[in-house]
Specification:
The chain is α/β, with parallel strands linked by helices and about 400 residues long. About 45% of the residues lie in helices and about 15% in strands. Helix 9 crosses helix 10. The longest helix is centred in the C-terminal third of the chain and has 22 residues. The chain starts with 16 loop residues before the first helix and ends with a helix. The relative contact order is 0.16.
C-alpha cells in the first residue's frame, strides 16, 4: 500500500482530513448572493493571522510567486529602485522577478546560511539621500537554507535611517506557522500562500496590504490586470471577485483559519518551535550541521542539513523516496547536492516528525553515512518527552 506516508518537504505540506473534506465540495456559484457571507468573515480572520488591524487582505488564484508579482506591479513603476539581499534560492528568485519587471534592483550579496542584514540595509538607506529606493524586500524565512530573518530589526534599521521606503516581506513559509506581526513590524506587503502554514493545496496567494502600499497603487505604472489590488479589494467589499475564484480552496481556507484560531496562534507557534527543536536535536546527534549559521537564524518550519563531505544530498533524498516512499527537500541553488531539507510545518505533530527522522536515518545508513542508527530519533524523543512533561506541569 502506498500514498499514506506524510511528506517532509517545506511545502506543499500535509493536508489534514478536516481540510480535505472542506475542499471536497460540489460546484458553487461564485456570484450567488450568499458568497458575501463567506468572504467578509474570511478576510477578517486572515487579518488576525497576519496581525493587522489597519491593513487590507487580498487572495488570488496563484502561488507565492504570484504574490511577489502582485506586490511589485501594484506599488512600483519600471525603473524604480528596490533594495534586497540575496541569501538563498527564494530571495534570488524574487530578485529575478523584479529584474524581469524592469526594476532597478540593488542587491546585497550574503552567504547562503546568513539572514537579512539589517545593519547593511540601514547603511544603504542612510546613504540614499534622494530616497531613490522605493522598497526594501526581505524573505522572512528562506526555505532553501532554513534561515529565519529578524523583520523587526529590518524595520528598526529603516526607521533609524529615516527612510520612507516600503517594506515588502515574503512570508510564504513562515506565516501561519511562526509569529508574524504585520502592523507592529511596519510591513507594507506581506505575502504567503495556501500550501504551507495554511495546510491546503497549492493555488492561492494571500497578501496583506498596508494603507501606505494601497496608496502607492495610485502612482505605480507597472502593467497589471489579473493581480490588481484595487479591482480585488473593491470586488471583495461587495462579496464578489473580479473573475472566477477557486471556491474549493476558499472553503478550505475558511476551515484552515478556523483550525489555526481554534488551536490558538501562540500554541501553533509553540508547536512549531517544539517540533523544530526536536529535529535540531536529531541533527546534532547525527553529528551533522544545519545550513543556518547561528541559532538565532534557525527556522521553525524547515531545517536544511549539510551532508558530510563526499556525499550527495540529492541522492539521499532520491533514495529515501525510492526505498521508503517518503519525500524530503533537496538542496537548491548554491547548496544543491550539499544539503537536504526536512520540512516540519503546517499539519505536523511530534509523532509525525519522528517518522521522518527515522526514515531519513534509514536512508542515510543505507548509503553509508557515518551515523548511528536510532541516535537522532532517540535525541528527538527525549526532547519531546521532556517538553510534554514540562507543558503538563505548567498546565497543572
Amino acid at each position: 500500500m502506498t500514498g499514506q506516508n506524510p511528506v517532509f518537504i517545506p511545502g506543499p505540506t500535509n493536508i489534514p482530513d478536516r481540510l480535505r473534506a472542506a475542499m471536497n465540495v460540489q460546484t458553487t456559484d461564485h456570484r450567488a448572493p450568499d458568497v458575501a457571507d463567506l468572504i467578509a468573515p474570511l478576510l477578517a480572520s486572515l487579518k488576525k493571522v497576519l496581525k493587522t488591524e489597519t491593513g487590507e487582505v487580498a487572495i488570488y488564484p496563484g502561488s507565492g510567486t504570484g504574490g511577489w508579482e502582485a506586490a511589485v506591479t501594484n506599488t512600483l513603476s519600471p525603473g524604480d529602485r528596490v533594495l534586497i539581499a540575496r541569501y538563498g534560492m527564494f530571495s534570488h528568485r524574487w530578485i529575478d522577478l523584479c529584474q524581469k519587471h524592469n526594476l532597478d534592483v540593488e542587491i546585497i550579496e550574503c552567504a547562503w546560511g546568513e539572514g537579512a542584514p539589517a545593519d547593511e540595509f540601514g547603511r544603504r538607506l542612510t546613504a540614499d539621500d534622494g530616497h531613490a529606493i522605493k522598497a526594501v524586500l526581505v524573505t522572512h524565512n528562506e526555505t532553501a537554507t532554513g534561515v529565519v530573518s529578524d523583520i523587526a530589526a529590518v524595520r528598526a534599521a529603516m526607521d533609524g535611517a529615516g527612510h520612507p521606503a516600503m517594506l515588502f516581506v515574503d512570508g510564504v513559509s513562515s506565516i501561519a506557522s511562526m509569529d508574524f506581526r504585520m502592523d507592529e513590524w511596519g510591513v507594507d506587503l506581506a505575502i504567503t500562500g495556501s500550501q504551507k502554514g495554511f495546510m491546503l493545496a497549492t493555488g492561492m496567494a494571500i497578501i496583506g496590504i498596508s494603507q501606505k502600499a494601497l496608496a502607492a497603487t495610485a502612482t505605480a505604472t507597472s502593467p497589471r490586470c489579473y493581480f490588481d489590488f484595487n479591482d480585488m479589494i473593491n470586488a471583495n467589499r461587495t462579496g464578489s471577485f473580479p473573475y472566477t475564484p477557486p471556491m474549493s480552496l476558499i472553503y478550505g481556507l475558511r476551515e484552515s483559519v478556523a483550525m489555526l484560531l481554534d488551536e490558538g496562534l501562540e500554541n501553533v507557534f509553540a508547536r512549531h518551535r517544539r517540533i523544530a527543536e526536536g529535529v535540531r536535536r536529531a541533527v546534532s546527534a547525527w553529528g551533522l550541521k544545519l545550513c543556518a549559521e547561528t541559532p538565532d537564524l534557525y527556522s521553525d518550519t524547515v531545517s536544511a542539513i549539510h551532508v558530510p563531505s563526499g556525499f550527495d544530498s540529492g541522492k539521499l533524498v532520491e533514495h529515501a523516496y525510492d526505498a521508503y516512499r517518503v519525500s524530503f527537500g533537496v538542496g537548491l541553488g548554491e547548496v544543491a547536492g550539499k544539503v537536504f531539507r526536512i520540512g516540519h510545518l503546517g499539519s505536523m505533530t511530534d509523532a509525525m516528525a519522528l517518522t521522518g527522522l527515522a526514515t531519513i536515518e534509514m536512508a542515510m545508513k543505507d548509503l553509508g553515512y557515518p551515523i548511528t542508527l536510532g541516535s537522532g530519533v532517540a535525541a528527538a524523543q527525549e526532547y519531546y518527552r521532556e517538553a510534554h512533561h514540562i507543558g503538563k506541569s505548567h498546565a497543572a
